[in-house]
Amino acid sequence: MSEYKYLSGFGSHFSSEDERYPNSLPVGQNSPQVCPYKLYAEQLSGSAFTAPRTENVRTWLYRKLPSAVHLPFQPFKGAEYFRQNWDEQPPNPNQLRWKPFDLPPKDGKRVNFVEGLHTVCGAGDPRSRHGLAIHIYSCNSSMDNSAFYNSDGDFLIVPQQGVLDITTEFGRMSVAPNEICVIPQGIRFAVNVDSPSRGYILEVYDGHFVLPDLGPIGANGLANPRDFETPVAWFDDRDVKDFQVISKFQGRLFVAKQNHSVFDVVAWHGNYVPFKYDLSKFMVINSVSFDHCDPSIFTVLTCPSLRAGTAIADFVIFPPRWSVQEHTFRPPYYHRNCMSEFMGLILGKYEAKEDGFAAGGATLHSMMTPHGPDVKCFEGASNAKLVPERVAEGTQAFMFESSLSLAVTKWGEETCQKLDAAYYECWQALKNNFQITKN
Ligand SMILES: [Fe+2]
């Protein structure tokens, strides 16, 4: 049985039935007033009812019981570092680098995906639907008889270690390192793991992730729509009496009990769906003559703001590729940016800093915080013979780039104890090479 079908493009219409129950989708206006198999119809709206047609997203779910059947929500105890308080720490304009974040301790304690969420930095407020948060997850056990949904925004999940087996209301997805998935606002899901697992999450409050426009690149390139996959309908046939639904609502977690599983959707149709993408399928566009393209050329997905061309957050990768430019310094340039740049490393070593930036770690270069290649990279690239070469082979670095100025949490700055106080030293040995005569 195939777990997935290809998306033919964002905004397309999809439909899916659990293969055990054929013809479970009502057919247009010829449907009876009772759904096939006596299922309940429930709409999940991902945009305002009146959003323009190009942005209007919703899905109809045909399920055994409506989601409304649950006991009242209570505050959830756990995940104490999953918080959106941007005023815990004074602002820090320094270059920040984290050593790899901890996996769960090997003391036998079980930590599931929700319990293992830790917020590193962010900005804005889910109540006004503007902003973002960046989290690390670190877990070693599965979510048994429980599910999570985010009332505040979308999750873009980037596994770094361990495969995530994700059950959603729409069906199941397996997401491995070097793949990503997006779980849009409100969609319930549970994560199963069979080994210690770690990764990064970009949460956006403003809107949904979409493919970037390609402009003069044309119809093909970067992340191609046909490579995105969404689950086929599947439901949990077990008789579950004690199920927990955990909701992130206005930055806090709440839990409600119910005597049925949320994974009871037999069929669905619509265009508001979870999806996954294999980063190895990204079609790299790069310079083939001279000069250095901006990293926006590597954008996989973007959450646009209302300002033209300016993202709440872009998800950008630095995949293996050919480097063939002439007459130019090939690694990333020295840089000061009106955007915030949070980087992570899924595997391998990052070309601009081969030492110190390790898989499972991160860096944050905030607004107008200078950054760029370290001494070793600068010296090497300044003297390299400019022949075509493969770069970033065996690696996958990524960037969450935002037009918002990000505050670091107390967990990110202190509690996690991974901040590398010596990071600034990587630039200190750069020499002033200025000379009156031309080289
Ligand atoms: Fe930069």
TrEMBL record:
Q: Does the keyword Metal-binding apply?
A: yes
**Residues reported to bind homogentisate:** Y350, H371
Residues reported in the UniProt entry to bind Fe cation: H335, E341, H371
Question: What GO terms describe the biological role, i.e. biological process, of this protein?
Answer: L-phenylalanine catabolic process; L-tyrosine catabolic process
**Pathway(s) annotated for this protein in UniProt:** Amino-acid degradation; L-phenylalanine degradation; acetoacetate and fumarate from L-phenylalanine: step 4/6
Start and end residues of each Homogentisate 1,2-dioxygenase N-terminal domain: 5-279
Q: Would I find Metal-binding among this entry's keywords?
A: yes
Sorted UniProt keywords: Dioxygenase, Iron, Metal-binding, Oxidoreductase, Phenylalanine catabolism, Tyrosine catabolism
GO molecular function terms attached to this record? homogentisate 1,2-dioxygenase activity; metal ion binding
Q: Which GO terms describe its cellular component?
A: cytoplasm
Q: Which InterPro entries match?
A: HgmA_C, HgmA_N, Homogentis_dOase, RmlC-like_jellyroll, RmlC_Cupin_sf
Q: What is its EC number?
A: 1.13.11.5
Residue span, Homogentisate 1,2-dioxygenase C-terminal domain: 280-434
- Annotated NCBIfam families: hmgA (TIGR01015)
- This protein's name: Homogentisate 1,2-dioxygenase
The organism encoding this protein is Drosophila simulans
Q: Which gene encodes it?
A: Dsim\GD23768
